[in-house]
Amino acid sequence: MLSHLSRWFWIFASPLVLFLVLWLINHLIYYYFFRHKKLSLEAPTALMALSMTSLALWPAVNPHPIIMNLIAMEFLVLWLYLGMKFVSDNIFQTVSAKIKPDHISIGIWVGATLLPTLLFVEIEPTLYGLIIFFAMTAIILWILYCYFCIKWLNKWIHKKYALRIDARLLFASINTSFLALMTYQLLNQELSFLIYELLLILAGFAYGISLYAMLIQALRFHKHHLLMHLNANITLFYSAIAILGLAVINTGMPQAMVEMLWWAMIISLIIIESLAFLKAAFRMKKHGLVTILLFHDQSQWLRIFSWAACYAFFRAYQFPYDAHHVPALIPLTSLMMIMLLIFYQLLLLVFHRNHHSYQLKFK
């Protein structure tokens, strides 16, 4: 017989009770702090970053099941709140005001749905109904996003490459890699291996198209303006390679392909973060250190997402392939930087709740 304490502990640890408790807490936070704020299309980047971090840390930390259930239910509550707020702020108002929506940004929502699905599979695979709901939602969103990307690509060609784009186009590659991971986790023995190979080829093709489009646009900028137009979205260039590498490892592709993706990620990471450092140094010289530190850039959540993806690729590549040329210090340093950046972003979010004067636009 269970003691009274064990009984209460078992009841509280159930996913339903955790969901209701977290829903109440999140609703109070939302009501008092965020109900009057309009949700941008890029808001789910925070959910993506935290989901990717949890997914990357889960094998290394291996916390208590209750902690992981708590994290899973919190992501479910956040996804529901973000989804409802997004529909009310963007879909309904866009239709009523006849504003043209930003279809490319829907790719963020595809990733913000695929990642929690992978997390639920790893943390609590017994939540069959929830996993199937998220998986079907993610597949529908992915199909819609592919349609919008093809439509945009056709328009881009007819406009003779004159359309303004950014690195968010890489979500086509990232989401396809995540879809390959999700289908492999859920339907490993049910689908032909050719399906996974086709998805990975499609992800690589989408990456190549995105890279080509970004290079054409970069040639139109003066080098100074190009540096100033860079933001954390550019980190998607190496995170897309890292996630493709994860999908390749998990689906059992040849080691030569994994090593090629590994070196491509390392080279692109060094180049992109060097450019980010140069931009930060230029801004610091022009605006001062304090202003730079207090500037809240929501796109920095994509940097956290990208570093978490690289950390997951580091660990997945280092141990199964016995990659001795990967220093053990790299995953540890990456983990510490991810935690610091998450803490810093949360502090900025709280700070800017009451200090809007630091929301500067750098030019």
Structure description:
Helix 3 runs parallel beside helix 5 and helix 7 packs parallel to helix 10. By secondary structure, the protein is an all-alpha fold. It is built from 14 helices and no strands. The longest helix is centred in the N-terminal third of the chain and has 33 residues.
Feature tags:
single chain, 363 residues, 14 helices, disordered C terminus
Walk me through the topology:
Layout (H helix, E strand, L loop, with lengths): L3 H9 L2 H20 L9 H18 L3 H33 L8 H18 L4 H31 L12 H16 L6 H26 L4 H7 L6 H15 L4 H33 L1 H5 L6 H19 L10 H26 L9
Helix pairs in contact: 2-4, 3-4, 3-5, 3-13, 4-5, 5-6, 5-7, 6-7, 7-8, 7-10, 8-10, 10-11, 10-13, 11-13, 13-14
Quick structural summary:
The protein is 76% helix and 0% strand. The protein has helices at 4-12, 15-34, 44-61, 65-97, 106-123, 128-158, 171-186, 193-218, 223-229, 236-250, 255-287, 289-293, 300-318, 329-354.
Report the count of strand segments: 0
**Rg over C-alpha atoms, rounded to the nearest angstrom:** 21 Å
Mean pLDDT: 76
Low-pLDDT residue spans: 93-101, 354-363
| Count of helical stretches | 14
Strand content: under 5%
How do the SSEs run, as a string of H and E? Answer: HHHHHHHHHHHHHH
Largest sheet composition: none
- Shape assignment: globular
Helix content: over 70%
